[in-house]
Each structure stands twice: as structure tokens, then as C-alpha cells.
Design a protein that fits this description.
Keywords: Coiled coil, Multifunctional enzyme. By secondary structure, the chain is an alpha+beta fold. 39% of the residues lie in helices and 13% in strands.
């Protein structure tokens, strides 16, 4: 069938489908009209009977019938957009305006509701005793149910608090809009029910003056009828006192040194200021902005000096004694220039910054610790990088140490995690217009378990008493020598905002042409069935991939590979793991591909290249393969067959056998001239001889990646670490040790067949350079893998299995190879195998291994004499190293 015939067939099918849909719509409309005619015909018949009984009403027959048939439809109730009292009021108006008979009100109401509301009312009818049909429900029963389900139970105290505390005119609001807003807010306050007007005024004025969140919560929980002015004052005092006692019990009454700020005096004449308005002065009794003669606390008794006429909070005697006490504390004079720097977030040179890396909403930022504040501040650029989360209004005024108001935009809650302690919590942040003001307050520091001493690179007295091998509680302990470099690396990364954007990159000026064999033929497979549990995730994945440019939908294509959805490893903080959409190219495409024989670097080569460096930075590319664009012919041949149609593969996919070789070659060509950089697929490692060299190498790499249009995941990058996990090993300045994956080997049970034994031996062989004489130690196990030997797991095999696990669990570290140090080679031979170890000999006479190698002896080699076996071990070691 030609393409034209296929297109004509498709158009005919669509035309038939549209005709069927049109027919169904017409049938549905006719059914609705019949139902409406039945309802209104009953009303018309009733009206005719009344007119026949009353001859004087004969002239009303036709108007009544016409009026009943002309009742329009009414809008359905939507709880999301309208309150039930407002809807019921509008419906009553509709009933009166359209002269709906009382006996038909329930049916008219039901026919105008959504399917959800109708079903709820039907369930209500069946739950009656005895059960009823929905058409037999009275209007009173329907209204009672709707009121119970959808009429919000308002807290009168809270509503009146909102009414009196939000009386200011908003910017740009007209007087008519202000009056309408006040009327709307008053509707939920139930003012007509007030009996004692004076007590109500005192109570609400007191509640509106409270600025303690805990007190307001306690007051709002009490019913309006049970809360008078005296009860409100009593509850507020008890709640506030309880909070103070609890705080002192938990944190103690510790005092902190006070930094006293002075502004340098200026010479010259002083400017005259107009006398401020009397209404702007603060009342000396309570501190509010009103006259002292009008203060409601004229008869209040101070709990500090026991004098009537003012509150303890502004007691002059108490303030005077506090000033005398603070004057004896450590005082630091700050110039006006330093004060401006402090407001702008700058720190004097002699003051160490307490910077730590913190992850907010899965993005990593450098935050400064500030134990002098409880608030957490982020700058406007950081808020934008987080995707501009919705801001709530601020309820407090924030000011600097110089009493200057801080310009804030609002607050938001951000999921925050300390990448080292692993603790995470939802932390409130205040967005400010001051650049580079990114602070974590003491509450967040305590919640996340961050140690301020460790952030400064200090060690407590207790930590000195511990062994040197103790595990650090924060990166500053293990990364103390790298703390400054880590801050510099984070600041350097901030200079490349495009590089760390949350979008898919594309390598500039390059298209990959995947090579196929000369006799390659088109292969097309139909789309595989998709489980219903994955349909939504797959559809979302397709839409995201098409938007990013990974795929392009087409109507016809000669090639088509079925899809294999794969769940990625679940990360902390996610409800379910992400779905990766791959093509199953093993069913036909891989057999037609030319092998791309670009050599993969060995882990030893890459780690040796950066061995002994000062700190390690690990850069992670985001969706690495998908950042490589394919040539048009390759896009067509690697297309996917999905349940939504054919998708052209515009970017390098996962699953084709030549993809690793192509990508490794691209990355090596991209970074081959950069010093201190090692690349294995999408894992890029950077180091340097010292801090400056490290920073310089990192800047060159980030510049190169940014210029080429690539994108990285900031949250997965690790900057200036003392040690990093790389290719299954732990790399540090001291040497190479086994990575965290060795734990999986140690937890493996004893093998039950040859297949599981080979799996265990393969995992052990991966860490073979850490195990001296591995071949001799594992010889009983290797013997079982031979086809000529029957499977028999005995004591000898179990002992070898346990011995290998014990050796793997050791903390042996292999040093980095240094051509300037003395080398040594130690060899050994047994009846079943030979081994060798390459080591460095240091000036103090100590020896540390660089690598271990071993092999089992063949049947002929086992007949050698012992001295010949030793010689064979030497030859083996020399050839291997």
C-alpha cells in the first residue's frame, strides 16, 4: 500500500469516527430534552387542572404552560469556587425569579448538579431509614446535607482577628473596592450575635495586639461563646509563660557576648529635623503608637519594678540595668564602612566566614551560618534559581544590627538537606533584595545537625581525646584543609549559571553519525503493551522528552524499536523513582551496528593520573548521552515504536552497543588538553597539585563545558572533597581504597551453584589488587568452576569463601604511584598459584603497597620445583607491572 493510499484510509477512518461521535452527541441531547419535557409537562398539567377548577383563571392557562416550559438551567455547585451559603442564596433568587413551584424545587436543584454532587445525594437517600429514592428527597433534606458537607465551620475569633488586623488600604485599591472588601470580610464575622459590645471590643483589640504565634493559636482554638476579655488575657499569659519555661528548660539561660555598634561621629553642622507628629511617638506605657492618656494599660502593674502605669516590656528601670550589664560585656567598635558591609552581607577580612554547602530543593548552594539570628535568608538570585517558589506575606519586620529595615519580598518553605549529616527538614526562608545575603539561622543549624566548630575547622576537647580514625560529623572535620578551596569552588560554580541550568544541554557544532553495516536492512517492531500502572508515567516521560528535543513524533518511518521503561534508583526525598525510557535495540538494531572500538580507560589509569592531588572535585553531566545530537539518518534508524506512535531519536540513546565508545571518544577529545582532568563516560574528576592549581583546572573545565553548550547537575557535583567515590573505589590523597560497593560483596551468601560462585569470584576479582595471593587463596573456588569437576561445597570451599570475605573487609589502602620514590617488587609462590606486590619504600624504611597481582598455576606449572615457581612469580610480576 502506498503512502497516499494509507493517508486516504486514515482520513476515511477519522471521518467515520467523527460521524459516530456526532450521532452519539445528538442522541444524548435528544435524551436530555425528553427528560426536561417530562419534568415540565407535569408542572403544566398541574397548572391546567387548577385553571379548569377555577373558571376565572381560564385566561391564565397558556401563560402558565409557557412559563413552566421556559425555566432555564442553573449553574452547578462547585465547592472550589463558591461557598455553599452564597450558592444557596443565588439558587433561592433563581427559584423566585422563575416561579418554580415548591414541589419541583428539589427536582430542579438535582437536575442542575454535577455527577459528583448527584452521586453523594443518591448515597444519602439510600442511607435513610427506610432507604429512599433520590427523587423522593425533600428540599430540606438536600439543604441539610449540603450544609453539612460544604458549609465551612468558621472560627469566629479567627475571622474577627483577620477582619480587624487587615484594615489597611492596599496599593492601587479604590475606595469602592476597599468598602466592598470590608463588607465581604465582615460577612463571616457574625457581628449581629455580639451581646456585650464593650467586652467584644476589648477582647478583639487585645488579640490584634498579640504578636506571639503560640498565643494566637491557643486563642483561636477556643469557641467564641467561651472566650471573653478576661479569659483571653488569662490564656495568653499562661501560654506565653509556659513557652518561656519550656525554652529555659531545653536550652538553659545562657548568655552570649554582645557586639556593640557605634557610628563614627561626623563633623560639621547638624541638620535640623522637624518635630515628629505626636501620633508617631510611642506610648511610654505599652510602646504602641498612641497617646499615653489613651493607653488601655494605664492601670497595669509592672512585674519588674512593681510600679503601676506601664508594662514590663518597656520598663525604664529594667532597660537601664540591662544597659549597665551589657556595657561590661565585650565591646567591638565598628566603623560606618564596616556597618554598611555588614548590612550588605560582607564580612571583614579578619572574621572567618562560616560557609557550608547546603541542598535546597535538590539544588546545592553555599550558605553562611549565623548563630545570632533565628531567621534564614536567601537572596533574590537564589530564589530565582529555585524556580521562584510561591511567596507568602511576611508577618514580622526584619532589621539589621544598625536598626535599618531589611528589604524582604516574602517567605517560602524549602526542603533542605545537609549533604553530609544526611538530615533534612522543611525550613522557612525569607527572600531579601540584598545580594549575596544567604544565611542559615541557629534554629536551622540545630535542625540539620550542623556543627559550627567543624565549619570553622576547629576540634573540640572531646574530639582530641578520640582516635584519629574517628568518623567526622561534618565535612569540615575531614575537609578542614580543603574548607577554603571548597568555598572558592562553590563561588566559581556560581559564575556559570547556564552550565547548571535545569535543562537538557546539546553539544554545539556536532552531530553523531552512528555507523551501520553495509548490508543493514530496515527493522520495525510494533509497540509493546504498556501496563496501566506505567501509562501515566510513560506519557509524562514522552511529553518531557519531546519538549526537550530528545524525540520527534512522525507519522511514518521504516525503522522502529520497542520501548523498555526502566525505573532508576530511588533517591532520598522522592516519592517514587524516576522512569527512564530506553529502546530495546537488542532485538535487531545492535546486530546491524558497526563496532566502535574506542578503548575504554582502565580505572587504574585514571586514578593514577590524579593520584596525590590536593582535593578532588567530581562533575556530573545531566542526561549525558542525550546531550549528543544525532545525524538525520541515525535519527531515522534509531526511532522508537511506542503506544503513541513512532518517535524519531534525535539524541544519542541508551541501549545501542556502540554508544559508550562514541561518548567516551567525544569526552576525551573535549578534555584531552585540560590538565588535572580525568573522564570516564559522564563522571569527570578534577584535581591539582595545590589549591590554586585545583581551582585553575576546575575553571578551565567549567569554561570548556559551558562554551560547548553542555549542562551539569549541581546537586550531584562534589567540590574539593578530601576523598571521592570513583569507578567503584575511594580516591584520596593518601591512596586508593575499596569503595562502598564492597559491602554488597561482603553480604553475599555462600554460593549454591557454579553460576552464583562465578558471580562472587567476579566481584572479588574487581578488588583483586587489594588482596595479596588472591589466586592461591581462591584456588578451591576456582577449581569448582571447571566443567570436569562436580559441584561439591565442602569445608575447604567454605573456609576459602570466609577468608576472602575477611581480607575484603580490611581497611588496606594502596598508595599512589610516584616515579620519584623507590620501587620494590615482592613475589611469592605456592603449590597452586603465584603472586606479586609492587610497593614504595620510604626513607624511614616503611613499605606501602601500590598493587597486588596473582594467577593460578596450570597443570604443567604445578610440576615445577619450588625454586622454579619462585622464578616464575618474579617473571610474572615484572611482566605485569
Amino acid at each position: 500500500m502506498t503512502e497516499t493510499e494509507q493517508l486516504i484510509t486514515l482520513l476515511r477512518e477519522r471521518l467515520k469516527q467523527q460521524q459516530r461521535q456526532h450521532k452519539e452527541d445528538m442522541e444524548q441531547q435528544m435524551h436530555q430534552m425528553e427528560m426536561m419535557m417530562k419534568v415540565f409537562s407535569g408542572a403544566a398539567a398541574s397548572a391546567r387542572e387548577e385553571s379548569y377548577d377555577d373558571p376565572s383563571a381560564s385566561n391564565l392557562r397558556f401563560p402558565i404552560t409557557t412559563q413552566a416550559a421556559a425555566i432555564p438551567s442553573f449553574v452547578a455547585f462547585d465547592a472550589k469556587s463558591e461557598l455553599w451559603p452564597d450558592y444557596w442564596s443565588r439558587f433561592c433568587t433563581f427559584v423566585v425569579a422563575n416561579s418554580v413551584p415548591e414541589q419541583r424545587k428539589a427536582q430542579v436543584f438535582l437536575t442542575n448538579q454535577t455527577a459528583t454532587v448527584y452521586k453523594q445525594l443518591a448515597n444519602l437517600a439510600t442511607q435513610q431509614n427506610p432507604p429512599k429514592d433520590i427523587n423522593s428527597l425533600t428540599m430540606d433534606e438536600i439543604v441539610k446535607f449540603m450544609k453539612e458537607q460544604f458549609d465551612p465551620k468558621l472560627l469566629i475569633v479567627r475571622e474577627r482577628f483577620k477582619f480587624w488586623s487587615d484594615m489597611k488600604r492596599k496599593p492601587g485599591e479604590t475606595l469602592q473596592e476597599l468598602a466592598a472588601r470590608i463588607r465581604q470580610d465582615a460577612a463571616t464575622c457574625d457581628f449581629p450575635s455580639i451581646k456585650n459590645l464593650q467586652d467584644e471590643a476589648l477582647r478583639q483589640r487585645f488579640i490584634c495586639s498579640v504578636n506571639n504565634e503560640a498565643v494566637l493559636k491557643a486563642l483561636f482554638k477556643i469557641k467564641d461563646t467561651e472566650l471573653d476579655f478576661a479569659r483571653a488575657v488569662q490564656v495568653a499569659i499562661e501560654t506565653e509563660d509556659a513557652a518561656k519555661v519550656a525554652k529555659e528548660t531545653v536550652y538553659g539561660s545562657k548568655t552570649m557576648p554582645v557586639n556593640k555598634v557605634h557610628q563614627n561621629k561626623t563633623t560639621g553642622p547638624r541638620k535640623n529635623h522637624k518635630q515628629s507628629n505626636s501620633t508617631d511617638r510611642k506610648c511610654y506605657r505599652c510602646g504602641k503608637a498612641h497617646k499615653a492618656t489613651d493607653c488601655p494599660y494605664k492601670e497595669a502593674k509592672c512585674r519588674y519594678c512593681d510600679v503601676t502605669g506601664h508594662l514590663e516590656a518597656i520598663c525604664r528601670k529594667k532597660q537601664h540595668q540591662n544597659r549597665e550589664r551589657h556595657s561590661h560585656a565585650s565591646v567591638k567598635r565598628v566603623t560606618k564602612a564596616e556597618l554598611v558591609k555588614a548590612i550588605l552581607g560582607e564580612v571583614p577580612q579578619d572574621t572567618p566566614r562560616l560557609d557550608v554547602p547546603i541542598t535546597i530543593q535538590d539544588r546545592q548552594f553555599t550558605m553562611e551560618l549565623d548563630t545570632a539570628t533565628t531567621g534564614n535568608f536567601v537572596s533574590l538570585p537564589v530564589w530565582r534559581q529555585l524556580g521562584k517558589p510561591k511567596l507568602d506575606d511576611v508577618t514580622h519586620r526584619y532589621e539589621s544590627a544598625s536598626k535599618h529595615d531589611l528589604p524582604v519580598l516574602g517567605t517560602f518553605m524549602g526542603q533542605t538537606k545537609d549533604p553530609v549529616t544526611g538530615k533534612q527538614s522543611s525550613i522557612p526562608y525569607i527572600v531579601t533584595k540584598i545580594p549575596d545575603l544567604n544565611l542559615l539561622g541557629r534554629n536551622a543549624i540545630q535542625t540539620l545537625g550542623i556543627s559550627v566548630d567543624n565549619a570553622l575547622g576547629l576540634r573540640s576537647i572531646e574530639s582530641h581525646a578520640k582516635s584519629e580514625g574517628a568518623k567526622p560529623t561534618h565535612p569540615a572535620t575531614s575537609n578542614a584543609p580543603y574548607a577554603a578551596l571548597q568555598r572558592d569552588c562553590h563561588r566559581l560554580s556560581d559564575k556559570f549559571p547556564n552550565l547548571f541550568k535545569q535543562e537538557l544541554g546539546c553539544l554545539k557544532d556536532f552531530e553523531l553519525d552512528v555507523k551501520f553495516k553495509s548490508d543493514a536492512k530496515p527493522v520495525i517492531h510494533k509497540a509493546r503493551p504498556v501496563p496501566f500502572a506505567l501509562r501515566d508515567d510513560l506519557a509524562k516521560g514522552y511529553e518531557e522528552g519531546i519538549a526537550k528535543g530528545v524525540w520527534k513524533p512522525v507519522q511514518f518511518n521504516e525503522y522502529g524499536t520497542p520501548v523498555v521503561p526502566i525505573r532508576k534508583a530511588q533517591t532520598s526525598g522522592t516519592l517514587k523513582p524516576k522512569l527512564r525510557i530506553c529502546g530495546d535495540y537488542s532485538v535487531g538494531i545492535n546486530d546491524q551496528l558497526e563496532d566502535h572500538r574506542h578503548p575504554m580507560p582502565l580505572p587504574e589509569e585514571l586514578m593514577q593520573k590524579l593520584g596525590g592531588g590536593f582535593g578532588y572535585t567530581k562533575i556530573d553531566l545531566a542526561d549525558a548521552y542525550n546531550q549528543i545530537k544525532l545525524a538525520p539518518e541515525s535519527q531515522r534508524r534509531l526511532a522508537l515504536s511506542t503506544h503513541r506512535g513512532v518517535l524519531l531519536q534525535q539524541r544519542l540513546p541508551f541501549g545501542i552497543k556502540s554508544a559508550p565508545g562514541y561518548f567516551q571518544e567525544i569526552m576525551e577529545n573535549l578534555t584531552c588538553d585540560l590538565p588535572g582532568v580525568a573522564v570516564f563516560q559522564d563522571d569527570i574528576l578534577v584535581s591539582g597539585k595545590d589549591a590554586n592549581d585545583h581551582l585553575s583546572n576546575l575553571e578551565r573545565l567549567l569554561t570548556r563545558l559551558n562554551d560547548k553548550g553542555l549542562r551539569c547537575r549541581h546537586e550531584k557535583c562534589k567540590f574539593a572533597q578530601a576523598s571521592v567515590e570513583y569507578l567503584g573505589h575511594t580516591l584520596s590523597a593518601e591512596g586508593i581504597s575499596k569503595g562502598s560497593k564492597v559491602e554488597a560483596v561482603l553480604k553475599m551468601p555462600a554460593p549454591t551453584d557454579v553460576s552464583s560462585l562465578k558471580s562472587f569470584l567476579g566481584s572479588v576479582q574487581f578488588y583483586g589488587k587489594f588482596i595479596p595471593n588472591l589466586a592461591s587463596m581462591a584456588e578451591p573456588l576456582y577449581r569448582l568452576t571447571k566443567k570436569a569437576n562436580p559441584w561439591k561445597w565442602g569445608d575447604e570451599e567454605q573456609a576459602a569463601f570466609e577468608q576472602l570475605k575477611n581480607v575484603l573487609s580490611s581497611d588496606q589502602v594502596l598508595v599512589h604511584f610516584d616515579p620519584n620514590k623507590t620501587l620494590g617488587l615482592a613475589c611469592d609462590a605456592s603449590n597452586v598459584g603465584i603472586g606479586a606486590v609492587l610497593f614504595h619504600r620510604y626513607p624511614d624504611g616503611s613499605e606501602r603497597p601500590i598493587a597486588n597481582v596473582s594467577k593460578t598455576l596450570t597443570a604443567a606449572e604445578r610440576n615445577y620445583s619450588q625454586i622454579h615457581k619462585e622464578a616464575l612469580a618474579i617473571i610474572f610480576g615484572l611482566r605485569k607491572f
